[in-house]
Write a structure and sequence with these properties.
Order of helices and strands: EHEEEEEEHEE
Number of helices: 2
Low-confidence stretches: none
Mean pLDDT: 90
Number of strands: 9
Largest sheet: 9 strands, antiparallel
């Protein structure tokens, strides 16, 4: 016999574009999702937002390296939650492409948020251009 789940008392609210953009700036780890020849991929990575676009670094032998050749449709997401059932998520959709501009590569390579966490060399820079952004926040019960 199973017990019924407690009724949710939180509130779900849609975030404005401005709130979504601001929340992208408060964290350094997200996930990029795309479909390739192997199927669906969902890869965590550290990233930075520069001039409204999302940048990350990868190695030539990574599954992410194929995005440098261009991919017309990726999703990128960040989220946060706490023990009080309060949280938010933001999802960006758009194309991904490898960066070839030397000045942008230098800027990305020197960005403090884009130092590789796992070590190793990550010379490939990928940009996700924001075509759409959406987010929501869950407000927990305060009683």
């Amino acid at each position: 016999m199973s017990t019924p789940e407690p009724r949710s008392t939180g509130t779900l609210v849609q975030l404005s574009e401005e709130e979504c953009r601001a929340l992208l700036e408060v964290t350094t780890v997200g996930r990029v999702a795309f479909v390739d020849a192997e199927g669906q991929q969902l890869i965590p990575l550290n990233f930075a937002v520069l001039n409204g676009d999302i940048y990350f670094r990868t190695s030539p032998d990574s599954v992410l390296a194929q995005l440098a050749d261009g991919h017309p449709d990726v999703a990128f997401g960040v989220d946060h939650h706490d023990v009080f059932r309060v949280g938010w998520n933001v999802t960006v959709r758009g194309p991904a492409v490898g960066v070839t501009d030397a000045a942008t590569i230098d800027r990305v390579m020197g960005h403090h948020q884009l130092r590789p966490w796992a070590g190793g060399v990550r010379p490939i820079v990928v940009k996700v251009t924001l075509k759409s952004i959406d987010g929501r926040r869950v407000l927990g019960n305060t009683t």
